[in-house]
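User: My collaborator sent over this chain with a note saying "see what the structure looks like." That's all I know about it. Can you take a look?
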Amino acid sequence: MEAQSAAPGRSRLDWRIWAVVPVLLLALAVGLVVNSGSSLADLVGTNPPPADEFDIRRVEFSPGEIRITVRNPQPDDLTIANVNVDDAIVPFTVEGPTTLGRLRSSTIVVPFDWVDGEPITVGVTSSTGIETVEEIPAAIETPQPSVEGFLGYALIGLLVGVLPVALGLLWLPALRQASPVWLSAFMAFTAGLLSFLGVEALSEAFDLQAGLPASLGGSGLVLLGVALSFLGMTALAARLTRGAAATGLTLAFLIAVGIGLHNLGEGLAIGASFAIGELQLGAFLIVGFMIHNVTEGLGIATPVAKTRVTLIVLAGLALVAGAPTILGTWIGGYTSSDVLIALFFAIAAGAAFQVVVEVGRYVARNAPGGLRSGHAIVGFIAGVATMYVTGLLIA
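Assistant: Without extra context I'll predict from the sequence alone. Here is the result:
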């Protein structure tokens, strides 16, 4: 009996040992490759010298001063040698190290009497003589955190996010009179607009990721954001519905969450445009997004067309879908992390795609004829087309 009980224990131990062996051998092989340096690559060719360019992350203007935030995207150390403003070498100080390791940042402070509203060019040269240039169309004083600015961004987010969604919810009384066929068409319309928002957010995420240093993970950053939100929304839906398909208020809530994450990205774009002085662009985005977002309220209202909901619940849904725009304007206006912004857009894309799955399950189960019905197909295409046409106001 003792011998038999000891044998399974040894087999389990042997299984754990064999599970670790491939990892240990891989670590050994990787260590050998790393220690070999460039000798392995030299067998098939030679690497070109690095570009030795800095990555200028942000240029800020205050009276009599320019602040330039730079990062080293190169694998080797980079040293700040000199700074140019409009092709003239200027004195500067550095807040942080002058020699930057990989992905390290410093802020260069340049005393300079810039002219408000005039174009200006700044350049940072490394010790190897390679200059990185940033052209600013119009120099204006960079907004500093303040109560007035904080409330201003909040008001913009309210107008762009919450108000249009609330106006779209006013379609609810009309939806209550619609037949089941038309309700299914409107649900397919919701799937179409969410699909458009998801593809749009994914495109933005890849565009932002392409401008990041390759050392930050490339498209893996976007995939991480999409996976986190898609699986997170799937877990949330399963918890709310106990494994069943989402309907009624639960489906409306999931749609509001997906739209809210996308509206967070819209707030980022508006806040960033104001932060870099593109005031006309920012004002244009406000108007465009307001028109663009009205149809989102229709998508949230459709699942509860045959459900009794109070005004407080509807207000909560409007806040879930629209309030993230306020958070986005704050982040975009007061930060300059392209990594964070790319991740947010990827999260928005994953959430939108997951809600499309939930809406598709609803249409397949409730629409006469399912997903193949003419109303469902036309509704989906109409949703995509509507978001495309209203999106032309923002392009």
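A starting point for your reply to your collaborator: The longest helix spans residues 2-35.
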